[in-house]
TrEMBL record:
Assembly and interaction partners: Forms a cyclic heterotetrameric complex composed of two molecules of XerC and two molecules of XerD.
Catalytic machinery residues: R154, K189, H263, R266, H289, Y298 (o-(3'-phospho-dna)-tyrosine intermediate)
Name of the protein described by the UniProt record: Tyrosine recombinase XerC
Coiled coil regions, renumbered to chain: none
Keywords: Cell cycle, Cell division, Chromosome partition, Cytoplasm, DNA integration, DNA recombination, DNA-binding
Lineage summary: Bacteria, Pseudomonadati, Pseudomonadota, Betaproteobacteria, Burkholderiales
Occurrences of domain Tyr recombinase (ranges): 111-311
Keyword field contains Cell cycle: yes
Protein family per UniProt: Belongs to the 'phage' integrase family. XerC subfamily.
This protein's record includes keyword Cell cycle: yes
Length: 321
């Protein structure tokens, strides 16, 4: 056991997590969740070799976790981690089959994504504290949030962006901007590459930030920081936590009646584009969703928006007969 009373992971699982990090570009958050899920599997299997796990073990372990009160979402994520590991490891270990391959995950109740209205988004991005600042941090924040909303990025994709594509001995860009082509290129979940347009206001804000960026940049910095599009106050690549705290502060100053976390800007992008364009496939492509059913959640959000507009505008909508 480790100091945190967690079982040590077998070498095979460590190799798989390393593979996901280096070759599939999984985020730190996802890798940490998978690590915990694999520790859970090792614990349930009582430290015995994972090569000995069979289909019945997987079903039994999920049943035990369900009885302990684990949610359907948590169980589904664990099963996905176990299935992915065995898909990679079973052939190497000469196991007869992936023991988690045909185990069905519990159904998850899909909640609607939270998005800002168009007016709320305008209030956020047009807040005086954001539009009037000319210091490097202020210009960075404006460019950062304009790009976030303009292109519907994930937080992990935003912080991993570089000034341009860079390939060095020990570093290759996961994402970068191309202002000449008015595009941002990102590496999304599962190593899926996509390109998304950059809107006019985001481009203008990015140009202003790039002029101010040298004021925060370190004279000598490792490749991962030297190439970073967005920098923190100390000249290192900006962290997700800093983005979150800056956005929370901005939302409070802008007077928004709801907590705004970074993913809300991505949801707002999807909802607003879908309201205007009504092109589900295009939104799916821009968001990088592997399954269109994920994107279809935004059609329900769009219907809620229409229903509220109807209720507030129709003279007989709220009247009882």
């Amino acid at each position: 056991m480790t100091e945190a009373n967690e079982p040590l992971l077998p070498e095979s699982t460590v190799l798989w997590l390393t593979h996901l990090e280096r070759n599939r570009r999984y985020s730190v958050h996802t890798l940490e969740a998978y690590r915990r899920d694999l520790q859970q599997l090792v614990r349930l299997h009582e430290g015995k070799p994972l090569e000995q796990i069979v289909n019945g073990n997987i079903r039994h372990y999920l049943g035990r976790l369900h009885a302990q009160g684990h949610s359907a979402r948590s169980l589904a994520r664990m099963l996905a981690a176990w299935r992915g590991f065995f898909k990679w490891w079973a052939p190497q270990a000469k196991m007869p089959a992936n023991p988690a391959a045909d185990v069905r995950a519990p159904k998850i109740k899909r909640s609607l994504p939270k998005a800002l209205s168009v007016d709320q988004t305008q209030a956020l991005l047009d807040a005086t504290v954001l539009t009037t600042r000319t210091d490097p941090v202020g210009l960075r924040d404006r460019a950062m949030f304009e790009l976030f909303y303009s292109s519907g990025l994930r937080l992990s994709e935003l912080v991993s962006l570089d000034l341009q594509y860079t390939q060095a001995k020990e570093y290759t860009s996961a994402g970068w901007i191309d202002l000449a082509e008015q595009e941002v290129h990102v590496l999304g979940k599962g190593g899926k590459r996509r390109s998304v347009p950059i809107g006019a206001q985001a481009r203008t804000s990015l140009v202003q930030w790039l002029e101010a960026r040298p004021a925060l940049a370190l004279t000598q910095a490792p490749e991962t920081d030297a190439t970073a599009l967005f920098l923190g106050a100390r000249g290192r690549r900006i962290s997700p936590r800093v983005v979150q705290s800056q956005l929370t502060r901005l939302a409070l100053v802008a007077g928004l009646p709801t907590h705004v976390h970074p993913h809300v800007l991505r949801h707002s992008f999807a909802s607003h584009v879908l309201q205007s364009a009504q092109d589900l496939r295009a939104v799916q492509e821009m968001l990088g969703h592997a399954n269109i059913s994920t994107t279809q959640l935004y059609t329900r959000l769009d219907f809620q928006h229409l229903a509220r507009a109807y209720d507030s505008a129709h003279p007989r909508a709220g009247r009882k007969s």
